[in-house]
User: Fold this.
Amino acid sequence: MATDCRAAAAKVLAQVMAGQSLAQALPPMLERVPPRDRPLLQQLCYGTSRNYHRLQSLLRQLLAKPLKDKDRDIQGLLLVGLYQLDDTRIPDHAAVAATVEATKFLKKTWARGLSNAVLRRYLRERESLATQLTDAQRASHPNWLYKAIYQQWPEQAAQIIAANNSQPPLVLRVNGQQGNRAAYLAQLAQSGIKARPGLLSEQAIYLDEPQDVATLPGFEQGLVSVQDEAAQLAAPLLGAGSGERILDACAAPGGKTCHILELEPAVAELYAADVEPERLQRVSENLLRLNLDAHLLAMDCAKPDDRLAAASFDRILVDAPCSASGVIRRHPDIKLLRRADDIQSFADQQIAIVRGLWPLLKPGGTLLYVTCSILHPENDALVQAFLAETDDAKLQAIDGEWGTATATGRQLLPGLLGTDGLFFSRLQKSPG
Assistant:
């Protein structure tokens, strides 16, 4: 049975506030609303998550006492209501009425009066309530992350914050084995789809408007894939050559795996490894669509198993699990889910992976370390720590004028060049 769009959004947000990601919570709920309502449901969930810290701070002022955990759905509904009033074109009266009506679908009609009172009070007092917000709340970032951004990137912080709160572009990567960017731009133009080339990657195309990828010319035939331009820099930086053995560690969903093979189809072998077997299914699907081949390997990359011999790979890509602080615009729920003490946990996991994989690299081989983080403990600090403890590791320069040069690599920051925020560092093992 179809459910009300705002009630559905409230349930999704309740799950996110309880610790689930939007990627987990939203898809099942999309199936429960009529197709015509699905774009609005997505907008309400992503928009409310993007503005959560500001909206939640306003809601605290509007409630006489906090709601109980069992009423997280009502909390989610009120946040959705505030989001509609502040950040959508929905008329105020319609937003209030629809939000109040959603209490019926949540089977909590007791909240009808509360919802009406909260939203109408906000309409009367929104300016005075806004003056009570801190800078971090106004920027809709958790306080620890807001401080970290300003401490680590003082000159770029305002732009990073703005990018984190923006809607991301849809970026495509043209498959060089089946065509080139100019030809595909022409196909898009013929289909009435406005697009422009990227500045950093020769395969990158930005669409002016979001598009269902299934409707893109040749998508199912493998002409293009979806991948942010920053991520498209990884495969060229790895520099896989003909006849080489390559390991793509932490590979799911496989965008970088496929790009490596598109750029150099004559590699001897490519292994794509990930700790979660179910995530490798996504890699398999992408390889199949693009008519590419790789060995898929389910393993903990911090503890490689005997299937991978020592000193057997010419190049290793470590796309390390991280805070994802550089891709918040694509995953705004990160601002709800991450905690300050998560960063050290990620750093510990990251260096364990690099330590575990380093023995698999041949003498003279290259390891490219990549994160979608902008935080130093996961990036420069980690690479410096590994170099300090590893006698046969040295930095390999990354040429280019893009992004920001750091002590151990280069950093792209969210929004500054239109890309996500990614860090790259390239290490070489001594020849022997």
About this structure: The domain at 5-138 is CATH 1.10.940.10 (N-utilizing Substance Protein B Homolog; Chain A). The mean pLDDT is 96. The chain has three domains: 5-138, 170-226, 231-429. The chain has 17 helices and 13 strands.
